[in-house]
Write a structure and sequence with these properties.
It is built from five helices and two strands, in the order αααββαα. By secondary structure, the chain is an all-alpha fold. It has a single domain, classed as Up-down Bundle (Outer membrane efflux proteins (OEP)). Helix 4 packs antiparallel against helix 5.
Length: about 220
């Protein structure tokens, strides 16, 4: 009988490089929308970024989360641990004095939405990179299993040709190999979907982009 061919690897998308700066997240539509809302409340975006946006490296080695990114979430429980460092005034003084209370509410809402957008961005990157680490380990284990079942099929086929075993053993080895290959293909596809997800949550760029202008008041 013909031996099963090993599963062909899926066409690989570009890997997420090491040392991706967090500034790539400034291109995310949700972060940019939150910054526009702050500008509408007469905020200095440069000061807002300095206060609320962690300037860190997102990845360590290729496709793995940096310690700095992991450190943004306390004890692995997903709680945001970054405290805003407000050293400069974010909002311009002397605006909207005719309706100060409305202005204050607008500002508070815009700040809350901005902080939430930033937390969401970093959390989604952290989750996607954590999933990537798991997929890498599972792919390696599944690759080893496919190789082992391939050898088992070769041995079963050799024993059948020598008359030491019947054809049912060969068929059973083939079924085992096919199942292992199918699981490998499923993991390969999941790994590619994860790369697409990473590209999305990283704002559509991870090769040292220039952040959009900070704007101001």
């Amino acid at each position: 009988p013909a031996l099963a061919e090993p599963a062909a690897p899926a066409t690989a998308l570009l890997a997420v490089p090491a040392d991706v700066p967090s500034s790539v997240l400034l291109r995310r539509p949700d972060v940019r929308a939150a910054e526009h809302a702050l500008q509408g409340a007469t905020a200095n975006i440069g000061a807002a970024r300095a206060a609320f946006f962690p300037s860190i490296t997102l990845t360590a080695s290729v496709g793995t989360a940096s310690n700095a990114l992991s450190g943004l979430f306390e004890g692995g429980n997903g709680t945001w641990a970054f405290a805003p460092q407000i050293r400069l005034p974010i909002f311009d003084a002397g605006r909207n004095q005719a309706n100060l209370r409305v202005a204050e509410v607008t500002r508070d809402t815009a700040v809350a939405q901005y902080e939430k957008a930033i937390q969401t961005a970093f959390r989604e990157v952290s989750d996607a990179l954590a999933e990537r680490a798991t997929l890498t380990e599972r792919l390696q284990a599944q690759g080893s299993l496919v190789q082992a079942t391939q050898r088992t099929l070769q041995l079963s086929d050799a024993r059948f040709r020598l008359g030491a075993d019947n054809y049912l053993a060969v068929l059973d080895a083939q079924r085992t190999l096919y199942a292992a290959q199918q699981a490998q293909i499923t993991l390969q596809l999941a790994e590619q979907v994860n790369r697409v997800t990473l590209y999305k949550v990283l704002g559509g760029a991870w090769t040292d982009p220039t952040p959009p202008p900070a704007g101001g008041s």
